Amino acid sequence: MVLIGVAIVIVGFIIRINPLLVVTLSGLATGLFAHQSLYEIIEQFGKAFTTNRYMAVFIATLPVIGLLERFGLREQAEHVVSNIKAATTGRILTAYLVIREAAAAAGLTSLGGHAQMVRPLVAPMAEGAAEAKYGTLPDRVRDDIRAHAAAVDNIGLFFGEDVFIAIGAILLMKGFFDQNGIPSDPLHMALWAIPTAVAALIVHSFRLHRLDRSLHKLLYRENGKGRA
Predict the structure, then answer these.
(1) Residues with Cβ within 8 Å of residue 40, at least 6 apart in sequence
(2) What is the pLDDT of residues 102-113, one digit of tens each?
(3) 177 neighbors 119 (Cβ within 8 angstroms)
(4) pLDDT tens digit string along 207-220?
């Protein structure tokens, strides 16, 4: 009967009841069937909230980004890039890839992200560079550029963070090897991640170079303009 909380969550989500209410009722039911007092259940709620209160920082991201966009952050990013003649979509994304991967390798995994960087800055800058060079972009091209901007963030973080010795993935592997009697050194694991990170940087930089070529081929033919 202790698992009744799982059933409450499933049923609550199926009939679309407020998720906060569903989870609260699930916790209460689980605690009561586990023969805990109401005081102990509320204490567990409070302890969980205190332990995970840092998660509330992410809640503030959405309104902050919304306000910045409302007051022209995206437009300003596009305008700045459009004045840089050497800027191209691929070069901007390559620069962000280098920064993102280097920061992740240094343990600064929060320096970037889709909500904080890609949507308000990186994607508009990449689009602005293409618009300055080729004029108005078709929707399918905008979507393609935005997809590449999101991919750059993912790839830079994924391959860069394993170089940092204290990242969760390294510690997880260390714990797994220790449990199975296999000697392991987190420093060596982090060092062996460097060749993979470098290879990912080179390969994806080449893909971004090809993105520039494909954009030039497509948009120059459609719009009849372009800047060498």
Answers:
(1) 31
(2) 999 988 888 888
(3) no
(4) 999 999 999 888 87
Letter for the amino acid at 13? F
Which DSSP string corresponds to 212-228? Answer: HHHHHHHHHHHHS----
Instruction: Evaluate whether 84 touches 139 at the Cβ level (below 8 Å).
Output: no
- With CA atoms as reference, report the closest residue to 157 among 222, 204, 191, 124: 204
- In one letter, which amino acid is 47? K
What confidence score (pLDDT) does residue 227 get?
Answer: 47
Please give the model's pTM, rounded to 2 decimal places: 0.67
Quote the tokens at residue 23: 């989870």
Q: Note whether 197 and 176 are within 8 A (CB).
A: no
Q: In the numeric block, which tokens belong to residue 35?
A: 């023969």
Q: Dihedral, CA atoms, 11, 17, 21, 25, nearest 10 degrees?
A: -20
Tokens of 13: 């989500």
**Burial status of residue 73 (CB atoms within 10 A of its CB: 0-12, 13-18, 19 or more):** middle
Cβ-contact 152, 122 below 8 angstroms: yes
Q: What angle do CA 90, 92, 116 make, to 5 degrees?
A: 125
Q: Are 157 and 107 in contact, with CB atoms under 8 Å apart?
A: no
Structure tokens at 155: 């790839």
Give 174-182 contacts, CB < 8 A, sequence gap 24+: none
Question: Residue 42 has which token pair?
Answer: 């509320």
Strand intervals (E) in 69-199: none
- Answer whether 126's CB lies under 8 Å from 141's CB: no
